[in-house]
């Protein structure tokens, strides 16, 4: 039952603040969609090429959803937003697939450090959820000025392709343009390869390198053209007449994979009782003000029905059972930010129950961390917080995390932050995440500095202290914001709160491609 007053001043202020943040998010997404900008987009079109997102749109089933992942990768760095690659989950011939599409309008689709991290994340998702991986290839290879950051870890791209194939997860490469040097191993290590006539070029060394290495004068088409690979080397399984033909062949390949979902089928789906639009006015702009996560839960779960577990115990953490797009889920949601001993023990028990029932868990984060202070330390907060972290770390059911508000300190870990490998993690524009709040962190540094000065018998520089605190607060505030964190792939994307149910539903559907995992084996709980 909802108690949200959608006519009140607080609600209207929260809604206005969220809409302002969403406008900023739309602007950043537009930067990613723009790719390399009009000049390079037009140049690519003049060569007869489709854009990365156009290729994806033609590949996936008509009117099906495409869940784009990490669209803000590289935000706040020297590289363009989006990191010159589009990744996501789409449905091809009724099969959910992970799709990785190089954007050739951004520095020729070359791989920079954020491209690499985004590509590796996509492969991890494919492996964990047993989703076929389709690479839409057109890349100039490594961004050479940053080779020191991508050469050695970049080998994981090729290792991942072999691991996926060895696990029986199909890999497909549709080559539209260049796939040179190390990039040649993407089609080389894929199960199925399609190359576009007169456009695809696949070779370990292009003509300039061949000339330098051997003295041979080589012509591109003869060295690594699609026709040669289809007729001579055998690297190409299919020779496509043009890009549209390549995408048709790609769809036909997926149709013939005989891929089956290994997880349980969802039950009937019921819409929530309350309008998702109301989610815009729930989270306060000042995250120190608590909000009731039940108001979020009833707007995202089927029928708005939530069977709460231990509602009278550890009330700063809400736990319970629901269905989401027909999938049974257990939900853990922070109610008042701080996690005490009772909440920690409650969470550990609930996670164990979910593992017994093989039920996926959804974490809705708004936490300032575990409680500190003499009484709480004496009461065993370290033991009990460790118990919760132990349970999260060793739980084997799928975890999905949404950061709605604060995500500070070890609370980020206990509520299944990125370090604990949730299958998917998304962030609302209202979220903030750091080791602690900006004012608290600056204050701690000030206290430590004062103590150090006192120990040396020196006077403390109050003016310098004030300047330091202001600088630190600004820095931590900037580094805790969702665009910054998403730019570094600490989530899978910043989403509109109104899309939360849809995004979680798509993720739960993807998770259902993998078999139900083996039961958990927990570490020793300190009692």
List keywords for this structure.
527 residues; alpha/beta; 2-enoyl-CoA Hydratase, Chain A, domain 1; 3 domains; eight-stranded mixed β-sheet; seven-stranded mixed β-sheet; 17 strands; 41% helix; ClpP/crotonase-like_dom_sf
Report on the architecture of this protein:
By secondary structure, this protein is α/β, with parallel strands linked by helices. The chain folds into 3 domains: 34-255, 2-enoyl-CoA Hydratase, Chain A, domain 1; 276-434 and 481-511, 2-enoyl-CoA Hydratase, Chain A, domain 1 (Alpha-Beta Complex); 438-479, no CATH class. The protein is 41% helix and 18% strand. The strands form 3 sheets. Strands 1, 2, 3, 4, 5, 6, 7 and 8 form an 8-stranded mixed β-sheet that branches. A hairpin with a 2-residue loop joins β2 (85-92) and β3. The two termini are 36 Å apart. The mean pLDDT is 92. Residues 268-518 form the CoA carboxyltransferase C-terminal domain. Residues 18-269 form the CoA carboxyltransferase N-terminal domain. InterPro entries: AcCoA_carboxyl_beta, ClpP/crotonase-like_dom_sf, COA_CT_C, COA_CT_N, MCCB/AccD1-like. This is Acetyl-CoA carboxylase carboxyltransferase subunit. It comes from Streptosporangium pseudovulgare.
